[in-house]
Amino acid sequence: MGVLERNNVTVRGLPDGRPMVFAHGFGCDQNMWRFVAPQFESTHKVVLFDHVGAGGSDLDAWDPQRYDSLGGYARDVLEILEELDLRDVVFVGHSVSAMVGVLAANAEPERFGALVLVGPSPRYTDDDGYVGGFSTADIEELLASMDANYLGWSGAMAPAIMGRPDRPELGQELTNSFCRTDPEIARHFARVTFTSDNRDDLGRVRLPTLVLQCSQDVIAPEAVGRYVHERIPGSRHVHLAATGHCPNLSAPEETSRAIAAFV
Amino acid sequence: MDAAGTETWASDDPFEVLFDNAPCGFLSTDVDGTITRVNATLAAWTGRSSEELVGHCRFVDLLSPGGRIYHETHYAPLLRMQGAVSEIAFELLAADGTRRPVLVSARTRAGPDGTPAGTITSVFDMTDRQRYEQELLRARRRAEQFAGRLGLLEQVVADLAAVPALEQVRAVVTGAGATAFGADVSVLQLRDDEGAGASLWPRDPDVRGGEVVVVSGPGATARFPRLVDLLDAGEAGTVVVVPLSVRGQTTGVLAARFDAARTFDGDELALLRTLGRQAGQAVERAQLFEQQRDVSTTLQRSLLPHVMPEDARYRLATLYRPAVDALEVGGDWYDAFSLDRHSVVVVVGDVVGRGLHAAAAMGQLRSAIRALAAVDPEPSTVLWHLDRFVDAVPAARTATLVYGVVDLQDGVLRYACAGHPPPVLLDERGARLLWDGRSAPLGARFGPAVRAQAEERLRPGSRLLLYTDGLVERRDRPLAERIDTLAAEVGSAAGIPLDALLDPLVDAMLRGVRRRDDVCVLCFAHAEQPTFTWRVDQAPGSPLSDMRHRLAEWLDAQTVPRPDRDGAVLAASEAVANSVEHGYPGGRPAFVQVQASVDHGVLRLRIEDHGTWKPTPSGRHRGRGLHLIRRLMDDVTVDAGAGPVTSGTVVNMRRRLSVAEGR
Q1: For residue range B158-198, what is the model confidence (pLDDT) as tens digits?
Q2: Are B50 and B57 within 8 A, CB to CB?
Q3: Single pTM value for the model
Q4: Between A95, A162, A216, which is nearest B137 by CB?
Q5: pLDDT band at B582 (very low <50, low <70, confident <90, very high)
Q6: Less Cβ around it within 10 Å: N or C end of chain A?
Q7: Active-site choice (A94, A229, A245, A256)
Q8: What order do you get walking across the sheet with A18-23 strand by strand?
Q9: Is A146 in Cβ contact with B66 (below 8 Å)?
Q10: ipTM, 2 dp
């Protein structure tokens, strides 16, 4: 299976336009961009994909070793760019994919033209003067809860806390949602995401970078967005009025305008 | 709430009353997620006042940290994309840090322009439901465990049906204790076991009544001291005693030890009772089967000849090897008997099938052949009569056999093979197969009406090998090739003494063969080496003159010159006298055997007794006898068996014949 099938890559828009690659974060899939990406199809070559383990990706390609750090996801991004032979890429990464983009750009800067980081966080937990938004205890509790399949992450994001083999239609309905994820992969991805620390990678970015910060984002608080902006030399910081962690869904117009103004 | 347990309403508006006091939480938010309205129930659950919540908090702020991430990464995107979500599990984190499991449903609220203007959310307390679901889950796990055990029990029952022998039944039953119930040690004790008996469960009314007994700690030792001992059970764990019952009788117990104390619910006890009943039946079946097998084996062994004819002009060797893992006896047999002073009959046959019927049919055939041969030993005639005989003995029908009658005067063998593999003849020209004289198995209604027979002259020293197909059949090789292999093996064993011939030969043929059939072999060695045998095993005082007379007669027949003959007779006589008088002091019954042979001008004598040979101090007469023997013979060796096992004495002596070579 090729890279494009593995990551369920979708290419739309202007064939010869400047490539824009949209990367979804932890939780859902490329549909996350469904209100934003179309805004750029008339001017850019728009590339969407699913991380392995999410959406329409090839679940068989998932390998706990390869994806044991964000570097594995960054490798996938580079393979997609190579397969499509893309250069001067505008990489738009949401949430954890903002850091995936930073890692990929640092590894092969020649392929990239600009980075757009939506709700980025280089580290989710507080650390000796650094405010990540969560305490280590919060994340430990979160991961422990997920391992116990207690919170109803992924598989039981459903209602049925305990799993409902007697009502398979429930599962089916949820499987059709764009947030479907294999429970084991989701747990693993969560662990990789929320235990990552990419603060040192920020300073190595040499690309024009836009940091989009939401209001009242519990996952990536404003202090974190400020931190990212300060660490990436020459980066731009835009504070959106949109609230929550997913401005691409809750405020697609504002988000698109901010990106368009940057590129 | 007042003393009567009814709410005191703050408002008179029935909708307000309903909204605020409904048994579930309600809240609405604006497009940013900030709470615009919350009912009293939900506010109480969060431990905050509605004033603290409205305009200051978002729903996500009320969740546990894990729930917050889930809200932002899954719930909110889903709600935005689908316009509604239902029954998502969260934990509310109250102001005092306590948690409350809730089930949340929400839908987006559209503003006048159709764009999302906020959300409306309902929150149901799930504390009880979660408990209930956990109970359901436990119940399901129990049910799954039960179904798993039931599946294992079915497997055990199927396994029991597939094994006929008692040892196999034991293995399956004790294995079931571990596989189906996780016992650390299981033992099966039957009432009929040696040293077992009902003392294992002395007058225990439950065990005798077929009830499963679960007992822990010191109680186990008090109640079943011997079983606890057998199980090597400490006092920490649990002992389970499952009676094996057949028709209301307890015939044994399966006792199991669980190192960690545990209890058994009704389902498990029912499974254990079933296991006990099934095991009881299987044990009974296996005992019946083994009884029948023992009867067949005894019968078959009793039907094989115990005494083979003795004659100086030939020797016989036989071998019977049952199939590996044979659960029932086969119908193979061999036989040899003298007809008159100058002819001997040899037979090897194979009745189709196994078990009691096959063994009985074999016995009848063997007797019939003896009777028929006494009337007319011609092979074709014997077979012709046997064809009629098996009409009356259905189990003997389609039996195969090879029958041969040897004239000891001229060495002519007349033989016939009824559907049987060909005999192998070995003489100085090598080994070859006797492919003539062939016809169909007994009772077959095809082929010529007259049974074929053939003739072969046996040279001095030749060997004739008769055998059943178990020796040559092998799944991965053609039969003809295997028969040729046998002939080659016999040929290469030409120099081996008859007594040491058959075991290695059969071993060689069966190497690498998974033997499912019995093997029966008879070797007739024609005039290989003339021997004389005389034995006395009665009380001392029996006439030695008889031995002297017969030995002299035999030596004459071997044309041994007179001086050699007389010397040998005297030496033998001295040796036997010593054995009888001194080897068995106190007049206890004696066993003395004299053997003589003449071969290539050498006369050999062998005298064997089971007494104690004391050369010098005990008797000078005996010492003098040995002195005389040494003068009469060229070479004398005395092997007085040392040690407790090899009691008895063997004297071997040799004398080279003076003038002419014996026959």
Answers
A1: 888 888 888 888 888 888 888 777 888 888 888 877 665 55
A2: no
A3: 0.47
A4: A162
A5: low
A6: N
A7: A245
A8: A10-13, A44-49, A18-23, A89-94, A112-118, A209-215, A236-243
A9: yes
A10: 0.85
